[in-house]
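Wed. Picked up where I left off yesterday with Cytochrome B561. The coffee machine is broken again, so keeping this brief.
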Amino acid sequence: MIRRLYDWTLRMADHHNALWVLALISFAEASVFPIPPDLLMIPMIIARPSRAWLIAGIAMLSSVLGGLLGYAIGALAFDGLGEPILAAFGKADAMAEFNARFVDAGFWAVLGAGVTPFPFKVITIMAGWTGMPIVTFLVTSILARGLRFFIVAGLLWYFGAPIRTFIEKRLGLVFTIFFVVLLGGFLLVRYL
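Structure written out below (tokens, as returned):
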């Protein structure tokens, strides 16, 4: 089953609408959606390495725009939208403590969440809720998401064929490692 899903994803990654789907997923992931855009971005770059920089750029731009939606949710609709989203990630009970820590480390929190598997939407909503200056949020988001997506794109572009061979030969192992890292990110959010 994993092999069929992988093959389907590679076929879809080369589909004429793949960039639009990536943009939509990147946008939604930064504010409300739990699935990271890397799931589509990686096979898209493996399928078409010549488009690595375009793919990373679209993921970054869409993610930053989605982050602005998350910021707006936190600033303008925290009680109705932001709090339920954060509650889904286990953050509702620790809001006051998290708020104090976030205000102290705002730039670093956005940078860290933007680069790591930590759900970016938690930070985007918190940035709006705590009143982080929008320019600081925007610059940090561009830096963080740019680092994350362009490093992934660069590695896949440079090591493309060997990475694809490695993934295809050890698909079960790669799939397991990816989900362990993803689950670790969610657990980190829940117990941070």
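Quick read: The chain has a mean pLDDT of 77.
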